[in-house]
Write a structure and sequence with these properties.
By secondary structure, the chain is an alpha/beta fold. It has helices at 22-39, 48-55, 60-67, 71-74, 77-98, 105-114, 127-136, 165-173, 188-197, 213-226, 237-242; strands at residues 9-12, 118-123, 148-150, 181-185, 201-205, 230-232. The protein has a 6-stranded parallel β-sheet. The two termini are 18 Å apart.
Length: 243
Amino acid sequence: MKPLQHDKVILFDHDGTVVDSETIALESAWKLTSEVAREFPGAQHYELEDFVKSFAGKPYREILKKIYPDSLTTLNEGDIDRLVAEEEKRAIERLSVEAKATEGTPEVLSYLRDDGFQYALVSNSSFQRLNACLTSAALTDYFPSEQIFSAHDSLPVGRPKPLPDIYLHAVKCLEAEVSLCVAIEDSISGVRAAVAAGIGRIIGYVGGTHISEDERKTRAEALESAGAEQVIERMQDLIELLK
């Protein structure tokens, strides 16, 4: 690896960006939600395809509050905590076996590392979930612990995207200049978090399998409306943008 020789710091989202994990995790969450609806009547029903479209990039706690508009009376905090823990457990079981890198990502990470770029992972997910995914996707060598930031575990209080806290924390820990950072995000909430943090350049990514080919144009427009400067379908295109 070359010594750091670029001013730009590349900050990657994880789920659906570096690791193609969204479909796996959301299918697991959807199945759990069907069980929850039997235990707690009144849930808003979603078919799997709509569930994936609606909740990609969102923590399960937030999903529960969306499917139960009256969640404060239907579910108490103890119920929500129990279900969030169950969703995490089930997702990790599947992701530790099924998670794969998004197409082209290993090549891009090799390029960044070999060319002396500083880069990191900035995610809503827990360290346990991230480690399970990175191990399954054979990406652990690219992300030592000091280059992984979790809104769930790195902050004194969990404050997930679209809040900017995890981006601001990562920038501070990396001793980077926020205006020189580049964020790569596949979700509207992630783009909004990067915008709120003042990240200098935001690139949307729509190459994950949770975004169908028919949906990519609409998703790209939504990411641009949220604040992405450009949108790519192929992770390899990031190299040319950075040049």
